[in-house]
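Handout, page 2. Input:
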Amino acid sequence: MVLYKRLTQIYKHYPIFMSKPLLQLSDVSISFDRKKTYILKDICFSLWKGAVMSIIWMNGTGKSTLLKIIAGIQEQTSGTIIRNYKKLWYVPQKIDVDMTFPLTVREFINIYNIGVSDSTIKNMLNKFDSKKILETQIAHLSGGEFQKMLIVSALMSEPDLLLLDEPTSWIDALWEKVFYQNISEVKKVFPELSIILVSHNLHLVYKNSDTIICLHSDNFCCHGTPAEIGNNKDVKEIWWDLVVPYKHKPHEKHIH
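Output:
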C-alpha cells in the first residue's frame, strides 16, 4: 500500500484528483505455477480521472500482463482491483491487419464499433483534423495516420479509461513524437479521459506523463512524478543520461 499512499500524497494537492480513484489495485499478484514464481507480485497503485500514467522498464517485467489484468483479459492470482469507471478500451501491442486487403478507415472503425454511423465517425475524425482519411485505404496511411485511426476507433465509445500496450513499438522515432502529439490532442478533446500506456521511450514518457510506474523483476522498482523518477538512482543506473534532457510538460497543469 506504500505506492497508493504516495500517489495519494501527490494527488491531494490538485483539485482534479480530489474524488475517489478511477482505478485502484491493492496487492495484485499473478502466478502461472501455483505461486512458486510470480510474474507480478503485490502491485498497488491508484489512477485518478484525467491522468496519464506510463508503465516503463525492460522487457519481461510484466508490463503487458499488468494491462491485461486491468482490462480483465487476464485474471489475477490474488489481490483486489476496484474499478470506478463505466467503459474501458484496450489497444493491444500487436494488431494483425492484412494491409493487402482494400480496407478503408471507415470500414476498419466500423469493424471495431458495430453500428456506429458514418456521421459519428466523420465527427470524431474531424475533432482531430483527420476527416480527409475517412475513405483512405489503411495500407496507404502514414504511420502517424494509422496510429491516429487506432486512437479514434478506441474513442468512438467514449471510454473513461484507455489502455495502450506499447503503442509505438512498430513505428520509428519520428512517428513516436507524432503519437504523443496525438495523445495531446486526445487530452484536449477528452480532458477527463484517463490513459495508461506502456512505453520504452524515456524522453517522451517524461514529457507526457503525470505519473510513472517502473516495474522491475516481479515487483515495483519505483514510482512517482516524472521529476522523481528522473532522480531515482535505480533508473539512472539502467538508462544513465537518458533521464536528464527533458523537463516535464504534462497535458494538464495539476502536476509539476
